[in-house]
Specification:
The structure is a single chain. This protein is α/β, with parallel strands linked by helices and 257 residues long. Helices cover 43% and strands 22% of the residues. The chain starts with a strand and ends with a helix. The protein binds adenosine-5'-diphosphate and magnesium ion.
Length: 257
């Protein structure tokens, strides 16, 4: 579905490449998480898949086709993108924000209106109540829902999501994670999601790619990564959620005694 071969990105004037000769294959229907600390190259990797950033070397294929062979605009319309920090247009209503891609595709206005309401319902928001609101009249979680609806508007089969739940309180994050997982499965999407949250990666991912200094240290299912971390760095990453789980487990037992 998505294949990165020897992808390197070197920004002008920097000593180290931001992304260094990575190889990655994302299967159809898979939810792949790029996990790593700030600055390790996650956003750069994601943005190369929809050509918001051009690689210095290497190739990327989507559905077997080299993404450099067509137009970047057509490519971006076929791939949903949820930006780090959502990035809704503040002067546009919820409905107008969601309708950006359908409008660019010249859908008839009746079809756009129906699609906006359908998407609001999909992300569990009352369409009549919210479609004419401005983004600053929404909570953080609601804005994130609109970011998701906007990315899904033109019926992409691929979703790229950059820390989509990063800025949310834990309860809202938990709800939105579950809702997105359902949408990912129901719509049979292929998703690449960026996060620096180990627990989120373990709970959502079919496979996790751990990135460190522009390289992929390990690519494995959550189960395999927990059982057999490839090196000391990955082992330490996996230790945090394990300690938390152990602490919770201990608390539950104390209560029972
Ligand atoms: N436009 C840019 N110009 C120069 N360096 C950049 C640019 N964007 C990102 N970088 C650098 O590339 C590295 C990877 O950044 P990024 O992909 O944003 O990491 P992440 O999303 O994992 O936090 C960082 O060292 C960052 O400072
Ligand atoms: Mg980033």
């Amino acid at each position: 579905m998505i294949r990165l071969q020897n992808i390197t990105k070197r920004y002008d004037g920097t000593a180290e490449p931001a992304v260094n000769a990575i190889n990655l294959h994302v299967a159809q229907g898979e939810l792949l998480v790029l996990l790593g600390e700030s600055g390790c190259g996650k956003t750069t990797t994601l943005k190369m898949i929809n050509r918001l950033i051009e690689p210095t070397a290497g190739s990327i294929h989507v559905d077997g086709k080299d993404i450099m062979s067509g137009s970047p605009v057509a490519l971006r319309r076929s791939i949903g993108y949820v930006f780090q920090g959502v990035g809704l247009f503040p002067h546009m209503t919820v409905g107008e924000n969601i309708a950006i891609a359908p409008r660019l595709l010249n859908w008839p206005s009746e079809k756009i209106r129906a699609r906006v309401d359908e998407l609001l319902t999909l992300v569990n928001m009352d369409a009549a109540e919210h479609r004419d609101r401005l983004p600053d009249q929404l909570s953080g979680g609601q804005r994130q829902r609109i970011g998701l609806a906007r990315a899904l508007a033109a019926q992409p089969r691929i979703m790229l999501m950059d820390e989509p739940f990063g800025a949310l309180d834990p309860l809202t994050r938990d709800t939105l994670q579950r809702e997105f997982l359902k949408i990912h499965r129901d719509l049979e999407l292929t998703t690449v999601m960026v996060t620096h949250d180990m627990t989120e990666a373990l709970l959502l991912a079919d496979r996790i790619a751990v990135m460190h200094r522009g390289a992929i240290l390990q690519l494995a299912t959550p189960r395999d990564m927990l059982a057999e971390p490839a090196d000391e760095y990955v082992r330490q990453l996996m230790a945090t959620p394990r300690h938390q789980a152990d602490a919770l487990e201990a608390l539950t037992h104390e209560e029972r005694d």
